[in-house]
């Protein structure tokens, strides 16, 4: 979708559609008022008819209004004027884009950036419109032989007051960079696992280096063997796909600035290994690389923003397959840190690849390390699909991430990681087991990782419930790219 900023009169815009807001109780927004005046009270008539009550996110599409240049006018309900906050605003914008996504509207002018939203200016509103419009119009139909007849909106003109123009232009740019990062992460998640292999992810990282000036290095199995990554390579040994350790660098800050390191779980398919998963919905385990995808998406976003900060990305990526050479329950692996791990369940593989990546991250002398992983089904049971699970060994870092989640509406929830849980990982045969029983499964997984993150401030984001949607709307969400990008933006300020 193409976006632009304009300072136009709603009745004079010649688009397939103009989008204007109506508050609950029938109060018209300024743009709706202008349309109403031009069309000789047409909208007042509609309100009287009861077809549009202004309820938040309700929509009504009108055709051929007198003296209005565009063919259609979309009325969108804004809810109560005094309740217009971030969430209400996002809902209204999303509803208007969705209402037009299946019809014949290709060009639209949106007049929602002039609305008053508490604490926010044209920069924020333009960025929101770009992010939401891009999110709502996302499709993954590369592999459908018949493409849908109607593409939905391809050109969206965001109208703002004259004084807001510069802010809105900057907001558009920032929103677009984030939208591109999110959609990249969605694509990687949605892509089938016979194509999106560890090698493919490495190629994508290398492509990012070419187009976005990111520095990329890919470590192969032999180099990882030298580093002693016995835990990561243990998981990888059951697959014919070679494992990769992808390392990315975004140098936006001063040379001596310590980097933030983002570590993303990149299991391109998780069968469970010898502890094989049941068949139902196993296809969704192609999304087990969404942590990796979020790191790549965030790199794309911050590179396009030229963000003035140093960031390193570390992506351990492999498949988890059952095979004659696969690890078995009972095997003991020696991690890069030297700590030994008894594998009691080969399906708890995420932590086995992340622990070596966390040890590897030490060499960057990080200011903070954040790992992102579709780590546990237990996290989905605890928090459902709305919040990402957040664990940290440093409260101030946790607070930063929580705030970034609120600001980007990509929220996380702080979970406990008290020492009380640690003994659940005890075993008679190694330094630790890779599982801690059913109770508090997402917490014991975080406890496991914490043992490899002692040398720096660290946070862990369990995105098992938020990185993709199941059912009719099955698809990657691009989360937590908005949270991570906002976290890095806030660090620059
Ligand atoms: N990738 C899964 C976690 C997962 C499962 C995410 C379902 C989203 C939906 C992970 O590798 C896994 O299999 N975890 C096990 C851990 C268990 C064996 C301790 C789980 O959650 O069942
Ligand atoms: Mn697993
Ligand atoms: Zn997994």
Attribute tags:
493 residues, alpha/beta, Leucine Aminopeptidase, subunit E, domain 1, Aminopeptidase, 2 domains, nine-stranded mixed β-sheet, six-stranded mixed β-sheet, 14 helices, 20 strands, elongated, binds ligand BES, binds manganese (II) ion, binds zinc ion
What does this structure look like?
The chain has 493 residues and is an alpha/beta fold. It has two domains: 2-162, Leucine Aminopeptidase, subunit E, domain 1 (3-Layer(aba) Sandwich); 181-492, 3-Layer(aba) Sandwich (Aminopeptidase), CATH 3.40.630. The protein contains 14 helices and 20 strands. The protein has helices spanning 30-38, 42-49, 86-99, 122-136, 165-190, 198-212, 221-227, 230-236, 290-304, 350-361, 377-383, 395-407, 441-450, 481-492, and strands spanning 2-6, 17-22, 59-63, 72-77, 107-110, 155-159, 215-219, 244-251, 260-264, 266-270, 310-320, 332-334, 340-342, 368-373, 388-392, 412-414, 432-433, 458-462, 468-469, 475-476. Strands 7, 8, 9, 10, 11, 14, 15, 16 and 18 form a nine-stranded mixed β-sheet that branches. Strands 1-6-5-2-4-3 form a six-stranded mixed β-sheet, covered by helices on one side. Helix 6 runs parallel beside helix 9, helix 10 packs parallel to helix 13 and helix 12 packs across helix 14 (481-492). The longest helix is centred in the middle third of the chain and has 26 residues, at 165-190. The chain is elongated and about 80 Å long. The relative contact order is 0.10. Manganese (II) ion is lined by residues 270, 272, 320, 347, 349.
């Amino acid at each position: 979708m193409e976006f632009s900023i304009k300072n136009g009169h709603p009745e004079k815009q010649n688009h397939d559609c103009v989008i204007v807001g109506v508050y609950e109780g029938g109060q018209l927004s300024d743009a709706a008022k202008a349309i109403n005046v031009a069309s000789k009270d047409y909208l007042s008539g509609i309100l009287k008819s009861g077809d549009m009550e202004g309820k938040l996110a309700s929509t009504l599409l009108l055709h051929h209004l007198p003296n209005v240049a565009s063919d259609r006018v979309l009325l969108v309900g804004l809810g109560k004027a005094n309740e217009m906050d971030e969430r209400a605003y996002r809902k209204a914008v999303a509803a208007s884009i969705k209402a037009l996504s299946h019809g014949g509207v290709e060009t639209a002018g949106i007049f929602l950036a002039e609305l008053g939203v508490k604490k926010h200016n044209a920069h924020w509103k333009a960025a929101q419109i770009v992010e939401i419009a891009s999110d709502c119009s996302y499709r993954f139909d590369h592999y459908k032989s018949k493409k849908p007849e109607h593409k939905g909106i391809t050109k969206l003109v965001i109208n703002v007051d004259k004084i807001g123009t510069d802010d809105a232009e900057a907001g558009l740019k920032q929103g677009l960079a984030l939208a591109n990062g999110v959609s990249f992460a969605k694509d990687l998640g949605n892509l089938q696992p016979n194509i999106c292999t560890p090698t493919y992810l490495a190629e994508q990282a290398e492509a990012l280096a070419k187009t976005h000036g990111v520095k990329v290095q890919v470590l192969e199995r032999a180099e990882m063997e030298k580093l002693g990554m016995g835990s990561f390579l243990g998981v990888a040994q059951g697959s014919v796909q070679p494992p990769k350790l992808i390392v990315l660098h975004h140098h936006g800050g001063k040379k001596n600035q310590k980097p933030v390191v983002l570590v993303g779980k990149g299991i391109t398919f998780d069968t469970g290994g010898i502890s094989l998963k049941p068949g139902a919905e196993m296809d969704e385990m192609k999304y087990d690389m969404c942590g990796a995808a979020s790191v790549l998406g965030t790199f794309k976003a911050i590179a396009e923003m030229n963000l003035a900060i140093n960031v390193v990305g570390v992506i351990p990526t492999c498949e988890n397959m059952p095979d004659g050479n696969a690890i078995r329950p009972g095997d003991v692996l020696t991690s890069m840190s030297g700590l030994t791990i008894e594998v009691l369940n080969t399906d708890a593989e995420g932590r086995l690849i992340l622990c070596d990546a966390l040890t590897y991250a030490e060499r960057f002398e990080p200011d903070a390390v954040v790992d992102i992983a579709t780590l546990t089904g237990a996290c989905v049971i605890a928090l459902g699909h709305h919040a990402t699970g957040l664990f940290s060994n440093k409260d101030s870092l946790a607070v930063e991430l929580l705030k970034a989640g609120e600001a980007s509406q990509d929220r996380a929830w702080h979970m406990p990681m008290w020492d009380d849980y640690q003994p659940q990982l005890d075993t008679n045969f190694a330094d630790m087991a890779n599982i801690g029983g059913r109770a508090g499964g997402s917490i014991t997984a975080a406890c496991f990782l914490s043992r490899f993150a002692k040398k720096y401030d660290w946070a862990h984001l369990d995105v098992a419930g938020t990185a993709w949607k199941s059912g009719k709307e099955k698809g990657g969400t691009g989360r937590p790219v908005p949270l991570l990008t906002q976290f890095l933006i806030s660090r620059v300020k």
